[in-house]
Amino acid sequence: MNLITKIRNFLHWESPPKPEYELLPEIYEHLKAFRLPLILMVMIMLVGTMGYILIDNMSLLDAIYQTGITFTTVGFGEIAPISDAGRLFTITLIIAGFAIFSLAIGVLVSEINRGHLAKAIKERSMLYRIARLKKHFVVCYHNDYTIELTKQLRENHIPFVVIDPREDLEALAKKHKYPYFIQDEPHTEETMLKAHLSSAKGLITISSSLADNIALIASVRLFEKEHFLPRPYYIISSAEAHSDVDKLKKLGADTVVSPTKLTAQRVSAMASRPDMENLLEEFLYQSNTPLDMEEVFVPKYSWMVLKKLKETHIRQIANVSVVGVTKKDGKFQAMPKGDVLVTSESKLLVIGTLKGINIIKGIVQKRQKPEELKYV
Length: 376
Description:
This protein has 376 residues and is α/β, with parallel strands linked by helices. The protein contains 16 helices and twelve strands. The chain folds into three domains: 92 residues, Helix Hairpins (Orthogonal Bundle); 125 residues, 3-Layer(aba) Sandwich (Rossmann fold); 85 residues, Regulator of K+ conductance, C-terminal domain (Alpha-Beta Plaits), CATH 3.30.70.
C-alpha cells in the first residue's frame, strides 16, 4: 500500500463513483478523424529534423527547434545560417505546415457541426453525476404525467432520472427542471447501465403505449436476473384498461395505476363526500403533511401474533391509530375494535405521523415483547 493510499484511508477519502457504462470508446470513435492531421504533423517534424541535419549540418536539438518554428509559422527566423537548399526546404515545410493546419481546422469544424463529439462529452458528464445517486427512481418516457410526477418527487426530495428517446429531451429537461436525464430507448441494457439502475430503488414507466410498458417491465426483470441483484426493483406502471392492469402485474409490475380509474374514483369521492376529499387533499397528499397512512406487515414471528389490538398498545407507544386490518386471505376489516386479534401475515393500516409509523414498523418486527410496554 503506497503513501497516497494510506493518506486516503486515514482521511476516509473515497474515490468518486464511476458510471456502469463508459462512453470513452464512443468519444474515441469521434476523435478518429483527427488521426490523419496528427500523423502528418509527426511525419513533417521527422522529415524536417532529418532535412536540416543533412542539408545544413545542424545539431539534433537545433534541427528540431528550427523545424518546429518553421512548421508552425511563428516567424522567429533562422537560428543558424541556412544554405539556399535549406531555404527551399524551409519554404516547403511552411507550405506543408499551413496545409496540415488547414486540414485540422476543417476536421474540427466538421466535428463541431455534426455535434456528436460535444454530445458524447455532455452525456459522459451526466453519467458521472447519475453515478452518485442512490435509491433513486428511474422515470421512463416524458409526458404530462411525468411533468406532474417529477414535481412531486422534487418536493419530496426523491432523486430521479428521466429517460426518453426524443431529440428535444435536453430542452425539455431545462424547462421542467429534470436534474438528471438520458436521451435513449429506456428498455435497452445499455440505457439501464447508464441510469445506474443497480443502485436505484425502482422504476416508473408511464408511457401511453401498453407495448412500451410491457417491454420495459420485462427488460427490467431480465436485467435483475442477469446482474444477480440482491433485491428486486419496485416497478410502477400505468395502464388505461382494467384488463391491462392484470397483464402488467403478471409480467412483474408491483403497482399498476389506471389514470382513468383514479380520475373516476376522485371525482366520485368529491361528488359524494367533498369534505372528506378536502381532508385527504390537505393531510395525506401533500409532501409536508404532519400525517401519513401506511400498511404495516405482521410477520409470522412477530410477538403481536394472536394478541388483541388493545394488548399491543400501539396508540400509547407511537401515537398512531389502526384504521383497518387486512387478513392473510385478503379480507379487509375497517375500524377494528380492541378485541380483534392480530393474525400472522396480516397487514395493519395505520394512520399517524411518519415518525410514529416507523416506530410501529420496528416494534412489529420484534420476536419478544418490547420493553416499551412496561411503561404503558
